[in-house]
């Protein structure tokens, strides 16, 4: 059995904690402040700008969830991290994570975070952390993930 860093996710998966207990499971999460992250350099596998000198796309998502008060597990360190996310159909909403194809692949090789009003925050290799829009990335979206509460 794997050691799961997100015990709440494991308990929800096993039914010990009802999904959405204490929360409105259909209400979108509140987007925390992010302006200070804009322009942060991209560093592959970067999780903490002060420690790593930059941040990766996954590190950016984890940082935004941390700022929202959610200790989301790192999928690079936790093989059960997928238990914390639902794949959703339909339009994305704030704090959803979109998986984007890179190049000609049909697989998601990059992630970004949906903000309010169709804005998207993501870390790019050439420009670091930037804002764009869902509409601009729509042709690359492979999957949408939503935090499981």
Query: Helical content, roughly?
Result: 10-25%
Number of strands: 6
Query: Helices and strands, in N-to-C order?
Result: HHHEEEEEHE
Mean pLDDT: 78
CATH fold topology: endopeptidase fold (from Nostoc punctiforme)
What is the count of helical runs? 4
Please list the strands of the largest sheet in the order they lie side by side. 1-6-2-3-4-5
**CATH homologous superfamily (4th level) name:** endopeptidase domain like (from Nostoc punctiforme)
* Shape assignment: globular
**CATH C-level class:** Alpha Beta
| CATH architecture type | Alpha-Beta Complex
Strand content: 15-25%
CA radius of gyration is 15 Å
Topology overview:
Blueprint lengths: L6 H8 L34 H4 L4 H11 L17 E3 L9 E5 L6 E7 L4 E6 L3 E6 H4 L3 E7 L2
Antiparallel strand pairs: 1-6, 2-3, 2-6, 3-4, 4-5
Describe the overall structure.
- This protein is of the alpha+beta class.
- It has a single domain, classed as endopeptidase fold (from Nostoc punctiforme).
- The chain contains four helices and six strands, in the order H-H-H-E-E-E-E-E-H-E.
- Strands 1-6-2-3-4-5 form a six-stranded antiparallel sheet.
- The protein is globular and about 35 Å long.
- The two termini are 23 Å apart.
């Amino acid at each position: 059995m794997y050691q799961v860093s997100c015990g709440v996710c494991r308990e929800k998966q096993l039914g010990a904690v009802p999904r959405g207990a204490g929360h409105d499971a259909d209400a979108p999460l509140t987007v925390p402040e992010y302006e200070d992250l804009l322009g942060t350099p991209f560093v592959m596998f970067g999780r903490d700008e002060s420690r790593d000198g930059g941040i990766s796309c996954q590190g950016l998502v984890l940082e935004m969830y941390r700022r929202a008060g959610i200790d989301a597990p790192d999928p690079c360190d936790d093989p059960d991290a997928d238990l914390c996310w639902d794949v959703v159909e339909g339009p994305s909403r704030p704090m959803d994570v979109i998986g984007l194809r890179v190049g000609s692949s049909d697989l998601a090789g990059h992630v970004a975070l949906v903000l309010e009003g169709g804005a998207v925050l993501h870390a790019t290799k050439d420009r670091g952390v930037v804002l764009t829009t869902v509409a601009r990335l729509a042709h690359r979206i492979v999957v949408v993930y939503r935090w499981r509460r």
